[in-house]
Amino acid sequence: MLTFYDVAMGPPLHQRNSAVNPWKSRLALNFKNIPHQTTWVPLPNITKVRTNLGIPACRKFADGTDFYTLPILTDPTTSAKIGDSFDIAIYLHKQYPNSGGNLFPPQTLEYTYNPGVDILVPLSEINQSEYPQYARFNANVDAVFTMHTMLMVGGMPFDPETEEEAKKEFLRRAGLSSWDQFAIGVEARQQMLDSFEKALGDLAKLFGDGPFITEEASYADLIVGGWLRMANRTLPEGEWEALRGWHGGVFGRLHDALEVYAGVN
């Protein structure tokens, strides 16, 4: 059985997992109907676990230091160890072609988002991928959601036993020195929500009446679905319900349609 490494937040773990890239991979594993077990890793332990498995960091901060993150997938049948959500999707697609759905069907994914400012947290790189449409789409979707993650940080479901250490690690990743820097006033928060809704407009157009971009789900849908899972776990209830209804309810329909692939093993 494959082992999938996800970020442990507060208990119960299977109801509070909220990290976006592990969600992309979890949805992909279930979409491909691949049996697996989850190993939960507290945020402060991710670097140690990753280095012990011999998996190098897949991204770097702007200062050149390594960014150790999850998910990780290990497959004992091939001895594979993969430490990037996009690479995990490609691995599942190639290694298990006859199981579950097609993660990478040919399709045009014309969506770009330019934030106009530098994003501090390193995003997935667009390498010479076999699936360039999907790689670019992944990077642009990551950018639009990352620019508005300040809305979600306050709702991160930290485990009380490791909360202080986890927050320190979170601050280090964000390049900040105090948790108070994540605080947003009422007026500023509403402005960011309005910006978020507007920024998602072009993305929503891809889905039409949905729930998926095309008739069948693909990894492109799971990329957006991973972010929606994070939003569902971390936004205040009223803001989550608002997001579900933006642009004719397209994101609510997508989130609900992917529920069948959201099981935690």
TrEMBL record:
Protein name: GST N-terminal domain-containing protein
SUPFAM superfamilies xrefs: GST C-terminal domain-like, Thioredoxin-like
InterPro entries: Glutathione-S-Trfase_C_sf (IPR036282), Glutathione_S-Trfase_N (IPR004045), GST_UstS-like_C (IPR054416), Thioredoxin-like_sf (IPR036249)
Organism from which the protein derives: Penicillium salamii
PROSITE patterns, alphabetized: GST_NTER
Domain GST N-terminal, residue spans: 9-100
Upper classification of the organism: Eukaryota, Fungi, Dikarya, Ascomycota, Pezizomycotina
